[in-house]
Amino acid sequence: MSKILIVMSAADVWVRTDGSRYPTGYWAEELAAPHEKFVEAGYTVDFASPGGVLQPLDQHSADPAIAGEDCAHYVAHAEKALRDFGPLLKLDEVDIDDYVAIVLPGGHGPVVDLFEDSDLGRLLIEADKAGKLIGAVCHGPAALLSAVDEDGRWIFAGREMAAFTDEEEQLFGTAEGAPWLLASRLRELGAAHSGGPAYQQYNVQDGNLFTGQNPASSARMAEDMITALA
Predict the structure, then answer these.
(1) 3-state secondary structure of 223
(2) How many helices (DSSP H) and strands (DSSP E) are in the chain?
C-alpha cells in the first residue's frame, strides 16, 4: 500500500518582534482534511516532525467563529489520527523512498522551525528530484524554504505557488509584530506566488508541487494530489 508523509512543525510558540510569545500549534482542518481524503483513497499516512515532537492543537482552529462550523469534525479527526498513529517519526530518520508524497500543513509553526530545518530540506530536495508529489497549505509553504541545495540555491525559486497571504495575516491580526510575512518572503526569494480572495479556497499546481492558500484549500489540495497519483 502506498504511503504519504505528513510533516508537522514541533513549535508551540511564535516569538514576535517585541519578544512576546504567541501560542501556536497545528491547524486542525489543514491536517485532518488531507488525512481524511488520503485514507479514503486507500493511502497509508505517516506523521513526522523535528525530533518526533507532537505539536499541540492551535486552539483558534477549534473555534467555530474563526474556523467555521465544521471545525469540531476536523479537531476530532486530527486528534484521533494522531492518537492512532502513536509517536511521531523523527524527521532525521525518515527515508523519502518509503513515500509517494510529502505534505506540509500549516498553523504558524512552519514559520518558526520548518522553514530552516535541514532534515526537512534534505527530504524535500530528494522528493523533488525523484518527482514525488509535494503538497503545502496555508503556512505550510514556509517549510519549502528549507530546501536549499549545496550551492545555496532555493530549489523552489521560480515555481508557482499559493500560501497564506499578507492580507490574510493582517485580517487574522498577526501581521503586526511578525518577524516576516510568508507571502512576501516567498516572492522575495523568487517564488511565483499568487493569491485569491481572503479565506476563500485557492489552489495552485506547478508540476509535482501542490499548494493551497488557507484552511479552505486543504481538501482541494489533497484531492488534486490524489488525482495526480492515480
Answers:
(1) helix
(2) 7, 11
Domain assignment of residue 34, given as a range: 3-229
Residue of 187, 226, 170, 224 lying closest to 202 (CA atoms): 224
The strand order across the sheet containing 44-49 reads 89-90, 44-49, 3-7, 101-104, 133-137, 209-212, 203-206
Task: For the chain, 230 residues long, give each residue's pLDDT as a single digit of tens.
Answer: 699 999 999 999 999 999 999 999 999 999 999 999 999 999 999 999 999 999 999 999 999 999 999 999 999 999 999 999 999 999 999 999 999 999 999 999 999 999 999 999 999 999 999 999 999 999 999 999 999 999 999 999 999 999 999 999 999 999 999 999 999 999 999 999 999 999 999 999 999 999 999 999 999 999 999 999 99
Question: 28 with 57: CB under 8 angstroms?
Answer: yes
Residue 58: Cβ-neighbour burial (10 angstroms; 0-12, 13-18, 19+): buried
Rg (CA), the chain: 16
Q: How does DSSP assign 69-82, residue by residue?
A: TTHHHHHHHHHHHH
Integer CA distances (angstroms), 116 to 108, 110, 121, 170, in order? 14, 9, 8, 24
pTM exceeds 0.85, yes or no: yes
- CATH code of the domain containing 212: 3.40.50.880
Cell of 194: 499568487
| CA–CA dist 115, 144 (Å, integer) | 7
- Please tell me the total count of domains within the chain: 1
* DSSP conformation class of 120: H
